[in-house]
Amino acid sequence: MGHRDMPAAPATGLRQLVRVDALHKSYGAHHVLKGIDLEVMPGQKVSLIGPSGSGKTTLLRCINYLETPSAGHVFIDGHAIGERRHGDGWTSMSSSELAAMRANIGMVFQRFNLFPHLSVLDNVLLGPRKVQKRTGRELIDEARALLDKVGMDAKRDAFPEQLSGGQQQRVAIARALAMKPRLMLFDEATSSLDPELVGEVLGVMRKLAEEGMTMIIVTHEMRFAESVSDKVVFMADGKIVEEGEPRRIFHDAQAERTRAFLRAVLDH
Amino acid sequence: MALLNAWAHSLHFLPYFLRVLCVSAITTVVLTACAFWMAFVLGFVLALMRLSRHAAFRAIASVYLELFRNVPLLTQLFLLYFGLERIGLTLPAFVAATLGFGLNGAAMLSEVFRSSIVGIDRGQGEAALALGMTWPMALATVVLPQSMRIALPALANFGIGLLKDTSLASAVAVPELMFRAKMLVSETYQTNLIYLIVAAIYLLLSLVLSRVSAATEHGLGKRRAALS
Amino acid sequence: MSYAELWASMHDDLLQAAWATLRLALGAIAVGVALGLLLAIVRIGSRGFAGRVARIYIEVFRGTPALVQLFLVYFGFVTIGIRFDSYQAAVLGLGMNAAAYFAEIFRAGIQAVPRGQSEAAFSIGMTGSAAMRWVVLPQAIRLVLAPSGNVAIALLKDTSVASLIAAPDLMLRAQDLSSQYFMPFEIYVTVGAFYFVLCYPLSRLMRHIERRHPARG
Lengths: 268, 228, 217
Prior knowledge:
The structure holds 3 protein chains of 3 kinds. Helices cover 35% and strands 25% of the residues of chain A. Chain A is α/β, with parallel strands linked by helices. Chain A starts with 17 loop residues before the first strand and ends with a helix. Chain B has one domain: MetI-like (MetI-like fold, Orthogonal Bundle), CATH 1.10.3720.10. The radius of gyration of chain B is 22 Å and the shape is elongated. By secondary structure, chain C is mainly α. Chain C has a single domain, classed as MetI-like (MetI-like fold). Chain C has 8 helices and no strands. The longest helix of chain C is centred in the N-terminal third of the chain and has 43 residues, at 3-45. The model of chain C has no long low-confidence stretch (mean pLDDT 90). Chain B binds chain C through residues 6, 66-67, 69-76, 78-79, 82-87, 160, 164-165, 167-168, 170-171, 178, 185, 191-192, 195-196, 198-199, 202-203, 206-207, and chain C through 59-60, 63-69, 71-72, 75-76, 78-79, 157-161, 163-164, 171, 174-175, 178, 182-185, 187-189, 191-192, 195-196, 199-200, 203.
């Protein structure tokens, strides 16, 4: 569990956007993450796959510090999130600094978590208005452009309860994008959707990927993961079992655990 | 300093105060109990009236409910104690107070009973009817026992509220806790000490009441678990 | 004296007193809501000393009669040098009492807003207080509207208790008039009617609101 002072820069001189360093997370006696090391480069799309309980969601939530690690660190673009260097050790970051870092990371939740008391447009505008303190006409134009990108501009005055799951999730993606994040985290974004609505959300995610967004995607949609990702990470029992290019993981996995999982999952 | 001397002087009275106040607390508890049962029985009748098929019963119960819910308890007490006297009907203080709390409480409890009865799934009553029971029998054997269990927390809350409300009986000269306290204050001027003791006694009584009701709920739950 | 004559003599006084009752109730509600919100937020946010103090406050004020609290505020503070007039004591005493009930209602309302809402707010970069202000509290308000309204109506009726520390209100006026005209039955029925006219519309409004914004859990 060592801590390195400076993030290691690879030979190309390009810095990792996300670096997870020896991450552990326990809930009481339950040890969920058992030492995770992960790197994500700018523009990379990384899929996290694995059985339930493997810790994929916990890992994702540690990356934007919605969960506090028990040990280890997460660096976003070279800066530790949630903590600060203090002499030889670390102290907690102030809540405003943490909020500022989170503003650069977008998250899409399994249960959408749209704000029910606001219209679709206001959901998207809330972040820029209250967090970035922006005003003006161009704010609304930008928001509508984002909604249009996800296909929801026509419903901008509707309220979340009037929308289907797929529509809500697309609005949630627009809401996250409104903050102009450098990184997007997707926490099983399609798991709560009726099957026929999954496609519209995956379509938006694919478009985002093609535009060069850095994405970390926790998903059960294996075909999507294979076609969109640059790197696939297979997790089980709180550890990374195997990682690599999609073609290799899905068709030529080295570890037996990986192969067993893929057999079970892809066999319907 | 003067304040410390005053406190030392106050403590001298402590045993006397505790004796007098604890005895009058018994009156408080008795008054609460009498009013509770009156409110329980009358409230139950009112609830049944509100659920009745006859519009006349429903109307009477509704009017009763609105009248007693929108007028302060103190006004009702004064009406019964001072008001009735002037038109020839003199009620002893304790009776007037019990009547006042009971009639008022009946309005509160009728709502509790009504919603707990309505809260029982329709299917329960229908199943009983399908077995060949009449509606009153279905009510008595199937619906009511279940609704009582639902109503228990609300009944306990009502009881605690009633306990506190009995302090108002001091205004119509019922020799309960608050009344005795006021008398002691006018005798000894130990205002803070006396009212703090009074507050502590009420707090203790309401804590006891909520423990008892929690234990009863738990006990009922255990019996159900044993039956299933 | 006939009722008509009685009414003619006293209706001005009663109207004034009704207005005093309303002012008293509004003052106490203001104190209660402000203090109650503070207590609720402290109880939710603090695990330490402050949270315990808030919890004890709520238990004590809910477990003792309002009358005792009023007496302690009105008579008791005198011995440590603070003298309230009966109106101030009533607003303070009834307000502090109501605060305990509001605090529990507000706490339940805030905690009923799903966790995912504040997480979504954090994920777009809001701090805890921004999330509370723009996302959690607006949703909590709908949940607390009905129960709070009921507390407010109960408070309106409880102002009658303030008459026992001689605060200017309807009941005090009624007692004065009774000793003046010796017709307590008619007077208290009339005063009862005044309270009814004040409270009944509010009760109906509350029931209407409850139907449109049901308080969950």
